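Suppose a colleague, Dr. K., hands you the sequence of a protein chain of 51 amino acids and asks what its three-dimensional shape might be. Before reaching for any lab equipment, you can write down a predicted structure in token form. Begin with the sequence itself:
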Amino acid sequence: MSLALSPKAVEIVERVKASKGFTSREAAINAILERIGDDMFLQQEFLAVSG
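The predicted structure, expressed as tokens, is then:
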């Protein structure tokens, strides 16, 4: 799988990577997505279906 990230997204991933000591962008992206999955408020913001 490949992903196209916006410049802002790359900046955020790189900040997470550096602050958490990850060795790859993939690890940082996984951590971000797992955090969204663990946080009720982030889930509502990013995963809620509006209709």
